[in-house]
Amino acid sequence: MLKAGVLGAGHLGKIHLKLLQQSEEYELVGFYDANKENAEKVASEFGYKHFDDLDELIAAVDMIDVVTPTLSHFEVAKKVITAGKHLFIEKPITSTYEEAEELIKLAKKHNVKGQVGHVERFNPAFQAVADRIENPMFIEAHRLAEFNPRGTDVPVVLDLMIHDIDAVLSVVKSDVKKINASGVSVISDTPDIANARIEFENGCVANLTASRISMKNMRKSRFFQRDAYISVDFLDKVCEVVKMKDAPEKPDDYAMILQNAEGIKKQIYFDNPSVSPNNAILEELESFANAINNDTEPVVTLEQGAKALKVANQVIANFNV
Protein backbone atom coordinates (compact mmCIF):
# COMPACT_ATOMS: atom_id res chain seq x y z
CA MET A 1 0.00 0.00 0.00
CA LEU A 2 1.16 3.50 -0.80
CA LYS A 3 1.60 5.81 2.15
CA ALA A 4 -0.50 8.93 1.57
CA GLY A 5 -0.69 12.35 3.16
CA VAL A 6 -3.24 15.10 2.60
CA LEU A 7 -2.42 18.77 2.47
CA GLY A 8 -5.47 20.85 3.34
CA ALA A 9 -8.38 19.80 5.55
CA GLY A 10 -11.17 22.03 4.31
CA HIS A 11 -14.48 20.80 2.86
CA LEU A 12 -12.94 18.84 -0.01
CA GLY A 13 -9.86 17.89 1.98
CA LYS A 14 -12.00 16.09 4.55
CA ILE A 15 -13.64 14.10 1.75
CA HIS A 16 -10.22 13.08 0.43
CA LEU A 17 -9.09 12.10 3.93
CA LYS A 18 -12.13 9.87 4.39
CA LEU A 19 -11.71 8.17 1.01
CA LEU A 20 -7.97 7.62 1.37
CA GLN A 21 -8.58 6.00 4.75
CA GLN A 22 -11.20 3.70 3.17
CA SER A 23 -9.10 2.84 0.12
CA GLU A 24 -7.33 -0.50 -0.16
CA GLU A 25 -4.65 1.15 -2.30
CA TYR A 26 -3.43 3.62 0.31
CA GLU A 27 -2.39 3.84 3.92
CA LEU A 28 -3.41 7.25 5.22
CA VAL A 29 -0.51 8.52 7.29
CA GLY A 30 -1.96 11.90 8.20
CA PHE A 31 -2.55 15.47 7.09
CA TYR A 32 -1.29 19.01 7.39
CA ASP A 33 -3.41 22.16 7.48
CA ALA A 34 -1.97 25.66 7.85
CA ASN A 35 -4.95 26.63 10.00
CA LYS A 36 -3.92 25.05 13.29
CA GLU A 37 -7.34 25.48 14.88
CA ASN A 38 -9.05 23.70 12.00
CA ALA A 39 -6.36 21.01 11.95
CA GLU A 40 -6.85 20.21 15.63
CA LYS A 41 -10.62 20.14 15.18
CA VAL A 42 -10.45 17.71 12.25
CA ALA A 43 -7.91 15.50 14.05
CA SER A 44 -10.08 15.40 17.17
CA GLU A 45 -13.34 14.79 15.33
CA PHE A 46 -12.19 12.12 12.87
CA GLY A 47 -9.07 10.65 14.45
CA TYR A 48 -6.69 11.43 11.59
CA LYS A 49 -3.09 12.12 12.56
CA HIS A 50 -2.24 15.80 12.30
CA PHE A 51 1.30 16.91 11.43
CA ASP A 52 2.43 20.29 12.72
CA ASP A 53 5.19 20.44 10.11
CA LEU A 54 4.56 19.97 6.39
CA ASP A 55 8.08 18.72 5.72
CA GLU A 56 7.61 15.95 8.29
CA LEU A 57 4.42 14.80 6.54
CA ILE A 58 6.11 14.83 3.14
CA ALA A 59 9.02 12.80 4.50
CA ALA A 60 6.67 10.18 5.95
CA VAL A 61 4.70 9.36 2.77
CA ASP A 62 4.98 8.16 -0.83
CA MET A 63 2.28 10.49 -2.16
CA ILE A 64 0.83 13.86 -1.22
CA ASP A 65 -2.75 14.82 -2.07
CA VAL A 66 -2.92 18.63 -2.37
CA VAL A 67 -6.38 20.00 -1.56
CA THR A 68 -5.54 23.60 -0.71
CA PRO A 69 -6.68 26.91 -2.26
CA THR A 70 -5.35 27.37 -5.81
CA LEU A 71 -3.06 30.27 -4.90
CA SER A 72 -0.94 27.95 -2.72
CA HIS A 73 -0.74 25.06 -5.22
CA PHE A 74 2.55 25.96 -6.88
CA GLU A 75 4.69 26.43 -3.79
CA VAL A 76 3.51 23.31 -1.98
CA ALA A 77 3.54 21.15 -5.14
CA LYS A 78 7.10 22.28 -5.82
CA LYS A 79 8.10 21.21 -2.31
CA VAL A 80 6.43 17.81 -2.75
CA ILE A 81 8.05 17.10 -6.11
CA THR A 82 11.56 18.19 -5.13
CA ALA A 83 11.28 15.83 -2.15
CA GLY A 84 10.78 13.02 -4.67
CA LYS A 85 7.18 12.31 -3.72
CA HIS A 86 4.30 11.63 -6.11
CA LEU A 87 1.73 14.42 -6.42
CA PHE A 88 -2.04 14.38 -6.71
CA ILE A 89 -3.24 17.98 -6.97
CA GLU A 90 -6.73 19.40 -7.20
CA LYS A 91 -7.76 21.48 -10.20
CA PRO A 92 -6.77 23.98 -11.39
CA ILE A 93 -3.21 22.69 -11.30
CA THR A 94 -1.76 26.15 -10.49
CA SER A 95 -2.64 29.82 -10.83
CA THR A 96 -0.62 30.37 -14.00
CA TYR A 97 0.45 28.27 -16.97
CA GLU A 98 4.10 29.19 -16.33
CA GLU A 99 3.88 27.68 -12.84
CA ALA A 100 2.33 24.52 -14.29
CA GLU A 101 5.15 24.25 -16.84
CA GLU A 102 7.72 24.46 -14.07
CA LEU A 103 6.00 21.69 -12.11
CA ILE A 104 6.02 19.48 -15.22
CA LYS A 105 9.77 20.02 -15.66
CA LEU A 106 10.42 19.33 -11.99
CA ALA A 107 8.36 16.13 -12.05
CA LYS A 108 10.42 14.82 -14.99
CA LYS A 109 13.66 15.82 -13.30
CA HIS A 110 12.77 14.06 -10.03
CA ASN A 111 11.07 11.12 -11.76
CA VAL A 112 7.76 11.45 -9.92
CA LYS A 113 4.23 11.06 -11.19
CA GLY A 114 1.55 13.73 -11.01
CA GLN A 115 -2.19 13.72 -11.54
CA VAL A 116 -4.63 16.63 -11.58
CA GLY A 117 -8.03 16.28 -9.94
CA HIS A 118 -10.29 16.79 -12.95
CA VAL A 119 -12.87 14.53 -11.37
CA GLU A 120 -15.43 14.69 -14.19
CA ARG A 121 -13.20 12.39 -16.24
CA PHE A 122 -14.25 9.75 -13.72
CA ASN A 123 -17.94 10.63 -13.77
CA PRO A 124 -19.62 7.30 -14.66
CA ALA A 125 -21.90 8.95 -17.25
CA PHE A 126 -18.92 10.45 -19.09
CA GLN A 127 -16.93 7.23 -18.77
CA ALA A 128 -19.83 5.32 -20.35
CA VAL A 129 -19.74 7.35 -23.58
CA ALA A 130 -16.19 8.72 -23.80
CA ASP A 131 -15.10 6.06 -26.30
CA ARG A 132 -18.17 6.80 -28.45
CA ILE A 133 -17.33 10.47 -28.84
CA GLU A 134 -15.45 10.45 -32.13
CA ASN A 135 -14.48 13.66 -33.89
CA PRO A 136 -17.24 15.88 -32.44
CA MET A 137 -17.83 19.05 -34.45
CA PHE A 138 -20.09 20.97 -32.06
CA ILE A 139 -20.15 20.78 -28.27
CA GLU A 140 -22.42 22.63 -25.88
CA ALA A 141 -21.97 22.57 -22.11
CA HIS A 142 -23.85 24.20 -19.24
CA ARG A 143 -22.42 24.07 -15.73
CA LEU A 144 -24.65 26.06 -13.40
CA ALA A 145 -24.41 26.16 -9.62
CA GLU A 146 -26.14 27.87 -6.76
CA PHE A 147 -24.00 30.44 -4.98
CA ASN A 148 -21.43 29.07 -2.56
CA PRO A 149 -18.72 31.26 -0.99
CA ARG A 150 -16.16 28.48 -1.53
CA GLY A 151 -14.31 28.99 -4.78
CA THR A 152 -15.02 32.69 -5.17
CA ASP A 153 -11.31 33.42 -4.73
CA VAL A 154 -10.98 32.59 -8.44
CA PRO A 155 -13.11 33.45 -11.52
CA VAL A 156 -15.96 31.07 -12.35
CA VAL A 157 -13.89 29.84 -15.30
CA LEU A 158 -11.26 28.37 -12.96
CA ASP A 159 -13.86 27.31 -10.41
CA LEU A 160 -16.41 25.57 -12.68
CA MET A 161 -15.87 25.94 -16.43
CA ILE A 162 -12.44 24.33 -16.30
CA HIS A 163 -14.17 20.97 -15.69
CA ASP A 164 -15.83 21.23 -19.11
CA ILE A 165 -12.70 22.65 -20.74
CA ASP A 166 -10.78 19.56 -19.64
CA ALA A 167 -13.55 17.20 -20.79
CA VAL A 168 -13.68 18.91 -24.19
CA LEU A 169 -9.90 18.83 -24.63
CA SER A 170 -9.91 15.12 -23.81
CA VAL A 171 -12.19 14.32 -26.78
CA VAL A 172 -11.26 16.99 -29.35
CA LYS A 173 -7.96 15.97 -30.90
CA SER A 174 -7.07 19.39 -32.28
CA ASP A 175 -5.40 22.64 -31.21
CA VAL A 176 -7.38 25.70 -30.18
CA LYS A 177 -7.64 28.25 -32.98
CA LYS A 178 -9.73 31.07 -31.52
CA ILE A 179 -11.59 31.99 -28.33
CA ASN A 180 -14.38 34.51 -27.80
CA ALA A 181 -15.67 35.00 -24.28
CA SER A 182 -17.67 37.21 -21.97
CA GLY A 183 -17.96 37.29 -18.20
CA VAL A 184 -19.96 39.24 -15.65
CA SER A 185 -19.20 39.89 -11.99
CA VAL A 186 -22.44 39.92 -10.03
CA ILE A 187 -21.61 39.14 -6.42
CA SER A 188 -17.85 38.51 -6.42
CA ASP A 189 -14.82 40.57 -7.42
CA THR A 190 -14.26 38.16 -10.33
CA PRO A 191 -16.79 36.99 -12.97
CA ASP A 192 -19.58 34.79 -11.59
CA ILE A 193 -21.10 33.89 -14.93
CA ALA A 194 -19.21 33.33 -18.17
CA ASN A 195 -19.62 32.07 -21.70
CA ALA A 196 -16.87 30.94 -24.03
CA ARG A 197 -16.87 29.96 -27.69
CA ILE A 198 -13.79 27.89 -28.43
CA GLU A 199 -12.94 27.18 -32.06
CA PHE A 200 -10.49 24.40 -32.92
CA GLU A 201 -8.21 24.02 -35.93
CA ASN A 202 -10.23 21.03 -37.19
CA GLY A 203 -13.44 23.09 -37.30
CA CYS A 204 -14.97 21.90 -34.04
CA VAL A 205 -16.71 24.56 -31.97
CA ALA A 206 -17.36 24.30 -28.22
CA ASN A 207 -19.83 26.67 -26.57
CA LEU A 208 -19.38 26.59 -22.79
CA THR A 209 -21.44 28.39 -20.14
CA ALA A 210 -20.67 28.43 -16.43
CA SER A 211 -22.46 30.20 -13.59
CA ARG A 212 -22.20 30.15 -9.82
CA ILE A 213 -25.23 32.36 -9.22
CA SER A 214 -27.99 30.17 -10.65
CA MET A 215 -31.25 29.18 -9.03
CA LYS A 216 -30.62 25.49 -9.65
CA ASN A 217 -27.69 23.19 -10.32
CA MET A 218 -27.03 21.84 -13.81
CA ARG A 219 -24.08 20.03 -15.34
CA LYS A 220 -24.95 18.95 -18.86
CA SER A 221 -22.90 18.56 -22.04
CA ARG A 222 -23.97 17.66 -25.57
CA PHE A 223 -21.65 16.37 -28.27
CA PHE A 224 -22.67 16.46 -31.95
CA GLN A 225 -20.79 14.46 -34.55
CA ARG A 226 -21.41 12.84 -37.90
CA ASP A 227 -24.57 10.72 -37.58
CA ALA A 228 -24.64 10.90 -33.78
CA TYR A 229 -25.75 13.03 -30.83
CA ILE A 230 -24.41 12.24 -27.36
CA SER A 231 -25.57 13.89 -24.16
CA VAL A 232 -24.05 13.61 -20.69
CA ASP A 233 -25.70 14.72 -17.47
CA PHE A 234 -22.79 14.91 -15.05
CA LEU A 235 -25.10 15.80 -12.15
CA ASP A 236 -27.68 13.02 -12.46
CA LYS A 237 -25.09 10.66 -13.97
CA VAL A 238 -27.10 9.64 -17.00
CA CYS A 239 -26.21 9.67 -20.68
CA GLU A 240 -27.94 9.26 -24.03
CA VAL A 241 -26.63 8.26 -27.43
CA VAL A 242 -28.79 8.99 -30.47
CA LYS A 243 -27.42 7.64 -33.75
CA MET A 244 -28.52 7.75 -37.36
CA LYS A 245 -27.96 5.18 -40.08
CA ASP A 246 -29.22 4.71 -43.59
CA ALA A 247 -32.84 3.63 -43.44
CA PRO A 248 -33.63 0.13 -44.73
CA GLU A 249 -35.91 -0.23 -47.74
CA LYS A 250 -38.62 -1.71 -45.54
CA PRO A 251 -38.28 -0.15 -42.07
CA ASP A 252 -40.10 -1.45 -39.03
CA ASP A 253 -43.52 0.11 -38.42
CA TYR A 254 -42.21 1.82 -35.30
CA ALA A 255 -38.93 3.00 -36.80
CA MET A 256 -38.13 6.72 -36.61
CA ILE A 257 -37.27 7.87 -40.14
CA LEU A 258 -36.01 11.28 -41.26
CA GLN A 259 -35.84 12.35 -44.88
CA ASN A 260 -33.84 15.35 -46.11
CA ALA A 261 -34.53 17.59 -49.10
CA GLU A 262 -32.53 15.30 -51.37
CA GLY A 263 -34.71 12.36 -50.43
CA ILE A 264 -32.07 10.57 -48.38
CA LYS A 265 -33.68 8.65 -45.53
CA LYS A 266 -32.04 8.04 -42.17
CA GLN A 267 -33.26 5.91 -39.31
CA ILE A 268 -32.87 7.19 -35.76
CA TYR A 269 -32.05 4.70 -33.04
CA PHE A 270 -30.99 4.85 -29.44
CA ASP A 271 -27.83 3.16 -28.26
CA ASN A 272 -27.61 4.06 -24.60
CA PRO A 273 -24.79 2.40 -22.67
CA SER A 274 -25.26 1.30 -19.08
CA VAL A 275 -23.80 3.57 -16.42
CA SER A 276 -21.95 1.84 -13.60
CA PRO A 277 -22.24 3.84 -10.34
CA ASN A 278 -18.97 4.80 -8.71
CA ASN A 279 -17.38 7.25 -6.30
CA ALA A 280 -15.54 9.45 -8.80
CA ILE A 281 -13.14 10.97 -6.27
CA LEU A 282 -12.18 7.56 -4.89
CA GLU A 283 -11.72 6.22 -8.42
CA GLU A 284 -9.45 9.08 -9.47
CA LEU A 285 -7.32 8.65 -6.36
CA GLU A 286 -7.05 4.88 -6.86
CA SER A 287 -6.32 5.29 -10.57
CA PHE A 288 -3.33 7.39 -9.52
CA ALA A 289 -2.18 4.61 -7.20
CA ASN A 290 -2.38 2.19 -10.12
CA ALA A 291 -0.30 4.54 -12.28
CA ILE A 292 2.36 4.73 -9.55
CA ASN A 293 2.40 0.99 -8.84
CA ASN A 294 2.41 -0.04 -12.52
CA ASP A 295 4.58 2.82 -13.78
CA THR A 296 1.93 3.93 -16.28
CA GLU A 297 0.65 7.34 -17.33
CA PRO A 298 -1.98 8.86 -15.01
CA VAL A 299 -5.46 9.37 -16.47
CA VAL A 300 -5.16 13.17 -16.10
CA THR A 301 -1.50 14.11 -16.43
CA LEU A 302 0.12 17.32 -15.26
CA GLU A 303 0.46 18.23 -18.94
CA GLN A 304 -3.29 17.83 -19.48
CA GLY A 305 -4.02 19.85 -16.35
CA ALA A 306 -1.70 22.57 -17.64
CA LYS A 307 -3.40 22.57 -21.04
CA ALA A 308 -6.83 22.99 -19.44
CA LEU A 309 -5.47 25.86 -17.33
CA LYS A 310 -3.93 27.52 -20.40
CA VAL A 311 -7.26 27.48 -22.25
CA ALA A 312 -9.11 28.65 -19.13
CA ASN A 313 -6.74 31.60 -18.77
CA GLN A 314 -7.17 32.38 -22.48
CA VAL A 315 -10.94 32.48 -21.90
CA ILE A 316 -10.45 34.93 -19.03
CA ALA A 317 -8.06 37.06 -21.11
CA ASN A 318 -10.67 37.26 -23.88
CA PHE A 319 -13.50 38.42 -21.64
CA ASN A 320 -15.62 41.22 -23.03
CA VAL A 321 -16.83 42.32 -19.60
TrEMBL record:
Annotated Gene3D superfamilies: Dihydrodipicolinate Reductase, domain 2 (3.30.360.10), NAD(P)-binding Rossmann-like Domain (3.40.50.720)
Q: Which intervals hold domain Gfo/Idh/MocA-like oxidoreductase N-terminal?
A: 3-118
| GO molecular-function term, one example from the UniProt record | nucleotide binding
State the source organism's domain of life.
Bacteria
Indicate the segments forming the GFO/IDH/MocA-like oxidoreductase domain, all copies: 156-216
Stated name of the protein = Oxidoreductase
User: What is the originating organism of this protein?
Assistant: Christiangramia salexigens
